[in-house]
Amino acid sequence: MDITTMIVLVIALALFFDFTNGFHDTANAMATPIATGAITPRKAVALAAVLNLVGAFLSTEVAKTISGGLIREGADGVHITPEIIFAGLIGAVLWNMFTWLRGLPSSSSHALFGGLIGAAVVGIGLYSVNFGTVFSKVILPAVAAPLIAGASAWLCTRIAYAVTARRDSETGEKLKQGRGGFRVGQVFTSSLVALSHGTNDAQKTMGILTLVLIAGGLQKPGTGPQAWVIVACAAAIAIGTYAGGWRIIRTVGTGLTEVRPAQGFSSESSTAAAIMASSHLGFALSTTQVTSGAVIGSGLGRRGTSVKWGTAGRIALGWVLTLPAAAVVGAAAALLMGLGAPGVILVVVVGIAAIAWMFYLNNRQRVGHHNVVEVEEAGDAVNFPRKRKRRQKGEAR
Fold it and tell me: Are 166 and 178 in contact (CB under 8 A)?
């Protein structure tokens, strides 16, 4: 198959991956304000889409990490082919679609990295991957960012409850706590998360398109994304965000129904700060991991809460499995594409069939803004005892 056709296929699949990234990660920004009633579901996804679009134009550091750091390409490295990139994208897209169908808040970022690494190792060799970059700008942030966001959210939540606490000056008894104003603040903090998501996640697809253009000899190694690449990726992730990804929102958001506005405000502020700092440093961060860490941190910051460590452990296990699972699929695709044109056609046909089948299964049991129901996943990692809730109602009366 000629190189021009392969480049076109890679561009199409990369933009579709960007689309899935958009609806996969909408919940990271908007699940909490939806759960607390700060904003309606439709308005939330529309706002997130616009801000993802704007955020995609604010930085290209992450794109440079992927296009010029993850895989050793150029005169001093290996000559990565469009076939390898296509195989890596197949691994990322199929994992994204599978986890979306199951309503699991997995990392689109790690799915992409896993797919590329698996395809490069099988198609070229182990030496093709720059493991120093993988460790410093992928693995290390994956471990540190959720912890930092969680600690920040814990501190912000403690401060928020401390400064807004109200007691009777004579008896010292608790009065009705007027923290409803945090709902208004949540609109701004969730918007900041959506904006920061665009500065980080849209860049990954820009890096992929830049990489394939370099591989096809249409762009010099070491250069950043072209203008049309930035526009196309920004539009794709914005459209995907507007599609909603309601299954992921159902998993994250309705499990967060017990989260109070003050906690939502704190977790969103911490999430946005971590993502924007990572984008500035060129770290290809998983926004899903940061969001989950911040949610758990904000839960621990409010007295009377408990953390379901079993659920948190299952979430962490999903994070661990994402990269190797996508790598296995990417490696298998690269192996088939090594057979030449017949292998490429087979991978394309099987990939399209798998995606179509998962969309079909989704339509059989459709999830939308009208039927978001409770699912015990990320948000449910923070649990509020019922007895304390009833006691608080009694005190309010």
Answer: yes
Calpha distance 229→234 (Å, rounded): 8
Average pLDDT over the chain reads: 77
Scan for tokens 């649990």, then name that residue: 383
Q: Is the pLDDT of residue 97 over 80?
A: yes
Q: For residues 334 and 119, what is the distance between their CA atoms, to the nearest angstrom?
A: 5
Residue type (1 letter), 325: A
Determine the Cα–Cα distance for residues 110 and 288; give it in Å rounded to an integer: 10
Q: 129 forms bridges with which residues in the sheet? A: 71
Rounded distance, CA 207 to CA 112, Å? 11
Closest by alpha carbon to 266, among 241, 300, 229? 300
User: Could you give the CA distance from residue 71 to residue 112 in angstroms, rounded to a whole number?
Assistant: 13
Count of other CB atoms within 10 angstroms of residue 12: 12
Region for 168 from its dihedrals, namely left if φ exceeds 0, alpha if ψ lies in -120 to 50, beta otherwise: beta
Taking the CB of residue 147, how many other CB atoms lie within 10 A of it? 14
Phi, psi of 307 (to 5 degrees): -105, 130
pTM over 0.85: no
Summarize the confidence of residues 150-171 as an average pLDDT. Answer: 77
With beta carbons less than 8 A apart as the criterion, state whether 104 and 314 touch.
no
Return d(Cα 258, Cα 280) in angstroms, integer.
33
Q: pLDDT tens digits, residue range 18-72?
A: 998 887 777 667 777 776 777 877 888 888 888 888 887 876 666 666 655 667 6
